[in-house]
Amino acid sequence: MHDILIRGGKVIDPSQGLSALRDIAVTEGKITALCDPGTAGEARHTIDATNSIVTPGLIDLHVHVYKHVPLGLDADLLSLGGGVTTMLDTGSAGSNNFDAFRKSCIDTARCQVLGLVNLSRAGLVAAELGELMDRRYADPQGVVRTIARHPGVAVGVKIRAGAHIIGKGKDGWDNLNEAIWAARESKTWLMVHIGECPMSIPDLVNALSPGDVLTHCFKGGTTRVTDDLGRIFDDVRAAQERGVEFDVGHGFGSFQWEVVEAALEQGFEPTTISTDLHMANLHGPVFDMPTTMSKFLMLGLSMERVVEMSTSAPARTLGLQDQIGTLKVGTQADVTVLEPLEGKFLFTDSYSVKRTGNTLLSAAVTILKGEILPAGGGRRMRFLA
Ligand SMILES: [Zn+2]
């Protein structure tokens, strides 16, 4: 007798190249069967996933969940509402407050929360002032010590490389180089936020190594992955080819239809889809992970690619591909059931421009470590045009 049986759904698990009708059984927190419809046997709880898509638990590679400080959300609410079972907090805390962040938010969350350590010792608690405008806030040694103190939880380094955040000219480069140094010294990786950068995007990506991540990759504004004619920079393409990763990090100022459409038209796809959810964009234009995924369906990516960019790809970025982002038998039972709603839906980028799509994914059921969470996806994000 299985604990849970999810039957009748289309299982999309890019980690196994699978996209077909399958039943999934879960027992004692693990996936115990992945088999042809109707062959799994009995279970205590059965979930009817007919007409739905069953995926590995979604992984959101860019969130802010240091709650009770400005912009910080409650990780478990994102998990419940958005079908996300693992999320990466991207630099909300730095060397001076990562311990507090871990104790108050990471260790108390039911879902899996990992964190990047901000080069600024204060993290983002006063981000509106520019967390690295005063170079004394940069603490590369502290980042390395913090990562060493939180193995498996603090998994890398974060810097927001805007001129109003890290300074211009030499200050900007000194900050960026210290973030790179901390990533190499801690044998982890660096996530760089772009946006009105003090250096050009080609110069920036050329400073990154395979495994490093550029986030907000479809941002508009002055420093983009595209040149003035809308062409992807050769250096950006070359960086992706040598293993630098490009993360969506939608956010409230970091996703522009023109840029993403130009990129996809030129065959430049993101490595990972993520939300950059925080207090200021939760109620639009981001809403949640399934809405962000739906935008890429509207832009023409296949359901399989969109699921890959939201499960197995971020799992690989985190080096956890054997544990999460997969439905392989024997792995931890993190499973998301997505309901594809058909209709006319308005999707908004970060510049208040709307597009109309035909499919809106909604997290109908979320199973975390073998437990059915007590809520499905919120329906608040549905905008019927
Ligand atoms: Zn962010």
What does this protein structure show overall?
The strands form two sheets. Strands 1, 2, 3, 4, 5, 13, 14 and 15 form an eight-stranded mixed sheet that branches. Strands 6-7-8-9-10-11-12 form a seven-stranded parallel sheet. The chain has eleven helices and 15 strands. The radius of gyration is 20 Å and the shape is globular. Helix 3 packs parallel to helix 5. It has two domains: 99 residues, Urease, subunit C, domain 1; 261 residues, Metal-dependent hydrolases (TIM Barrel). The protein is of the alpha/beta class and 385 residues long. The site of zinc ion has 4 residues, from loops.
Ligands, ions, cofactors:
zinc ion
Discrete helix count: 11
Query: Which geometry do the CA atoms define?
Result: globular
Broad CATH class of the largest domain: Alpha Beta
Low-confidence stretches: 377-385
One letter per element, helices H and strands E, the order comes to EEEEEEHEHEHEHHEHEHEHHHHEEE
Q: Could you give a short account of the major beta sheet?
A: 8 strands, mixed
**Rg estimate, integer Å:** 20 Å
Q: What share of the residues does DSSP label as strand, in percent?
A: 25-35%
Count structural domains: 2
Instruction: Report the count of strand segments.
Output: 15
Chain-averaged pLDDT = 95
CATH architecture of the largest domain: Alpha-Beta Barrel
Q: Mind telling me the CATH superfamily name of the largest domain?
A: Metal-dependent hydrolases
Question: Would you tell me which CATH topology of the largest domain applies?
Answer: TIM Barrel
State the secondary-structure class: alpha/beta
Q: Determine the N-to-C terminus distance.
A: 45 Å
Residues in helices, as a percent range: 10-25%
